[in-house]
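Hey all, quick one. A colleague (J.T.) asked me to put the NAP job into the tracker so the inputs and the structure tokens live in one place instead of scattered across chat threads. No bug as far as I know, just bookkeeping. Sequence used:
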Amino acid sequence: MGAMLLDGKACAADLEIRLKEQISSCKIQPHLAVIIVGDDPASHVYVRNKVLSCERLGIKSTHISLPAETEQDFIAEKIRSLNADDSLHGILIQSPLPPHMDEEMLTELIDPRKDVDGFHPINLGRLVQGRVEGMVPCTPSGVMELLNWAEVELSGKKAVVIGRSFNVGMPQALLLAAKGADATVTIVHSRTVDAKAECLAADIIIAAVGRPGMVKSDWIKPGAVVIDVGINRVDDSTRERGWRLAGDVDPEVQEVASLLSPVPGGVGPMTVAMLMANTVKSATFLQD
Ligand code: NAP
């Protein structure tokens, strides 16, 4: 029997119901500012989805769209003024920024309490300390929410995270290993000698690589849970637009796994929902 597909849209919709209740009991309206620089079409789609989610939930959003040639100092000044604006609770810089900009430096300028992406070193540092009450990066926390929603037992299980980026793989590994989740975690990266052997030993695999179809069905222990974080654009002449989205996991994995998150419709909707959750968290904290 094939794997059950983990419906990220349904899980995100359940979370949105809870968030609406929290928003209705907030003394203030949560307010998110999204800064986008340049005209990368995929980034503009992501920002539009975030703004639409805000509208659905009753979160105020301010969309700041700037041309690619904007000076870095201008963005830095903009972040400082958003930090000082008491009516605003979340600040997000849509990645990637144009190459002449120092994304790390600009992220560090964001007030950590308003850092709804969870990428500020203070928030990532708290995660290392096992403190998840602050801003936790949205994609890995969305994966945790999805696993919890599907009632996947993590304690004592062997988990493999493929990828060690600061925004997905590394915080994902920390969240799985944190007290309360209690998985035993292996991180696979580009220098790992035998990624297949590591995966075959795992009860849970989280693939966050950026290589379409890399994780094959013969990498999977029968009955394992597989979460596909990858979002890759691959050529597809059967589609009018000439491309489609593909994950890091080969669709044939469905024949072997017990649960599989699809792409699209798995982790993607959870990432946006967790951004909303972080904005509500920040507004709740800052209102007092
Ligand atoms: P990234 O910064 O490029 O990191 C990729 C990671 O994969 C690196 O740690 C790299 O290892 C590792 N890697 C590369 N080739 C490998 C190989 N052959 N074997 C094992 N590991 C390998 O990417 P990212 O930002 O983490 O994103 C990963 C994927 O998730 C992308 O497809 C991205 O589009 C997607 N994504 C999805 C969401 C969502 O909402 N669903 C959100 C964010 C990202 P090294 O460190 O050794 O180089």
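Adding what we noticed when we looked at it: The chain has two domains: 28-117, 137-268. The first helix runs from residue 8 to 24.
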